[in-house]
Amino acid sequence: MFRNFRQSKKFMRFISTAQQTVNSNGRRIRLTTTVLVGTTIISTACYKISHAELATIKKKVDYSKYMSLPVTSTDELENNPNDMRTRMELMIMKVQADFCHALENEERFGEKFKVDRWLRKEGGGGITCVLQDGDVFEKAGVNISVVSGTLPPGAVQQMRARGKDLGNDPMPFFAAGVSSVIHPRNPFVPTIHFNYRYFEVVKKNGEKMWWFGGGTDLTPYYLNEDDSVHFHRELKKACDEHDLSYYPRFKKWCDKYFHITHRGECRGVGGIFFDDIDSPSQEEAFKFVTSCANSVIASYLPLVRRHKNDEYGHKEREWQLLRRGRYVEFNLIYDRGTKFGLYTPGARYESILMSLPLLAPNLLPLNVLLQRQVQTTHYLNKTVSFHLSDIGEGIREVVIKEWYVKPGDVVEQFDNICEVQSDKASVTITSRYDGKILKLHHDTDEIALVGKPLLDFDVEDDVVDEEDVISDDEDLIDELEPIQHPLKTKVLATPAVRRIAMEHKLDLSTVTPTGRNGRILKGDVLQHLKLIPEGTQIPHPTIQTKQEVQKPAQVVKQDAPAPVQKPKSVQLTSKKEPLKGIALAMYKTMTESLKIPHFAYCDEVDMSKLVELRENMKKSALEEHDIKLTYMPFMIKAASLALLKFPILNASFDESEMSIIYKPYHNISVAIHTPNGLVVPNIKNVEQKSILEIAQDLKVLQEKGQKGVLGPDDFANGTFSLSNIGIIGGTYTRPVIVPGQVVIGAVGKTRALPRFGPNDEIIKAHIMEISWSADHRVIDGVTMASFSNLWKKYLENPYNFLLASK
Fold first, then answer.
1. How far apart are CA 70 and CA 57, in angstroms?
2. Do 232 and 248 meet the contact criterion of CB atoms below 8 Å apart?
3. 3-state secondary structure (DSSP) of residue 63
4. Which of 12, 188, 241, 379 could covalently link to 310 via disulfide, CB atoms 3.0 to 4.6 Å apart?
């Protein structure tokens, strides 16, 4: 896939232009470099800092702008302002802070980086910044490290393999660098990785050697050529400030470095990469690395803004997770930074493995391997934290409505655990384990966050298979060699599943797994044994659509009536109740909606002919299709027909890219009153449906709303909204636009009113009011009025449906 992109005409034209620029300006590059080197030597020789100037510099250092205090003491930094170690540490701290703040600004609900400043007993330390479970970024890590000590033989050998003349003895070293990996939530937002570092070693004879390294690369899950060209253009701009040969040279180096040999593919669309840069001078090399590091925001943030609101579904999410698995595979097998960290005594494994995403398929064996190397037994403990899974549709929190278990209860896989209410749907959470409940992390009516612990289980030891654990005697680096052949591993299954298989003499390797990490679930076995009909929808191991849960009947003790007492004065007090569930969702949605500049347009519609048509149709609709025919399906279909003429009203506005996104499907949202409040699910693909099909879909949504079983899919990807305030007697109103759409209409009550007929006589007419609100940033009054007139025409002359409908 990525190889094809690299051969695309648009991208090749961009690269060819860069190379031609280098060829035509090669002489000028050499001359410029010579002048710069000479200037640097002269300025370095002439410059001496005074105590007064040093005091001024001390005052200018503002550490509050960084994510934390520096690793090196502030006195040491301020007393050595021109030392490359000082300059590099302050530079990477600024890059870290700028990038973290830029990413935080993209989060819609105020997610912030958590900061961990750590020190290393061998010398130095680092600042680890991680944002996790955000609305835009599933996991974002931006780390800096400033470490010193003695290079172990393994690290020396690795550097010698790259051509460094270091000898065989351990030697003092200093290293400072910034590294980052960003894993977005939306599959259409690419992952970015960058790393820029400075290294010093002192040889046995006292000779000091230094060099810089680094690079930035992009890994999209779905290729977008404009994104890739923008990304490479920004990198080229940073390189060209210093040497026109840098970009083509370091791009080629990057393509080679990120090529996965045993798969025959590249990790992404490349970028730039370089190792061991030690010319033309330390000053020039530092300036070049600084330019590259500072270009990250300009190269990446526009891509985030362009795609963070793109619509996606289960298939796109599955593809994203598959590609993430390849990403992690590269980091654990090939990446030099990972290997160097593992070789270094006192290494901090949390920082080394910062690049790993929260979710990726088939990673359990590698995770167990790495956990064993750092002497933890997390996977072998009996206590397992059950985390609330991603329900979808960007839902980040839910309210615990009811627990079906309590501490001490013994449950099996698929048993109901609790019912939760999101801002869009009720969902019943089911167990993925057999075991005993130890602890509930939330009380009823408390908010639980997606990805955080919900409850703790005591499970059997073999809930993780023995084959998932690698022997301590095996060497870590040997185990992380490239995989040339498929691994033969034991089937993953819980003891309960193995027990069923044993009873039926079933070879589990013949069963198709559907669980996480390739685990076989109880439903997989039952379907394989045909104990449940083939094609039966098996509940997800962690969530299923809410079913009718049988609860024990409660016997109410009836006491004798209490004697009548004289009323007493009662002290009235105020009651504070936090927003939860749909009320909290309304707060968030309305806050976003009212950022949209609304304008209103109102009219009235003569429904007389439609009243007559419906009267003739409703009996057959009820008897033949069991549908109580209302006016709403006609209004929805009329809106879809009018949208074919005015597609801009079926669009969304991307403010970050200043662009309009036209939707080819008409998923019309309808407001439905439920016992839990007002919700707005949508009827999918109205443009392809008849009046009766729309009426049937509307009936299903209303029934699900009354039962509280509307799911995330019922709310996904709405494009246009209609609300019926007429059922409560309303006429005109000012509806509020749903975020992600540009128009909403509210229909009023149909009333019998006097009107003038064609000959100026007074006649009885059935009149309905319509109120529209539109996003005035992209919709003008003429367009809104023209759409409304066409919609009105269809309703006032309903037989036109026959001509216009497909």
1. 16
2. no
3. helix
4. 188
Largest CA distance in the chain: 112
Backbone angles phi, psi at 201, to 5 degrees: -135, 155
Predicted local confidence at residue 392, as pLDDT: 56
Is 794 contained in some domain? yes
Q: What does DSSP say about strands 672-674 and 668-670: parallel, antiparallel, or unpaired?
A: unpaired
129 contacts 330 by C-beta, under 8 angstroms: no
Q: How many structural domains does the chain have?
A: 3
Mean pLDDT taken over the chain: 77
List the CATH number of the domain containing 409. Answer: 2.40.50.100
Q: What is the mean pLDDT of residues 86-99?
A: 96
User: What is the domain range of residue 704?
Assistant: 582-804
Tokens of 703: 């029934």
Q: Are residues 686 and 738 in the same domain?
A: yes
Q: Is residue 113 part of a domain?
A: yes
Phi, psi of 583 (to 5 degrees): -65, -40
Task: Compute the distance between CA of residue 476 and CA of residue 483 in angstroms, rounded to an integer.
Answer: 14
C-alpha 187/C-alpha 138 separation (Å) is 11
Phi, psi values for residue 220, rounded to 5°: -80, 150
Model pTM score:
0.46
Examine the pLDDT at 154 and tell me if it is beyond 90: no
Tell me the two tokens of residue 667.
Answer: 């998923």
pLDDT digit string, tens, across residues 184-205? 999 999 999 999 999 998 877 7
pLDDT in tens, 27-69: 333 333 323 233 332 233 333 344 444 444 444 678 889 999 9
Model confidence pLDDT, tens digit, residues 420-429: 887 666 778 8
Residue 688 lies in a domain: yes
CATH no. for residue 595? 3.30.559.10
**According to the model, what pLDDT value does residue 167 have?**
62
Which residues are marked as active site?
193
Q: Are residues 408 and 259 in the same domain?
A: no
Give CA–CA dist 683/678, Å, rounded.
Answer: 16
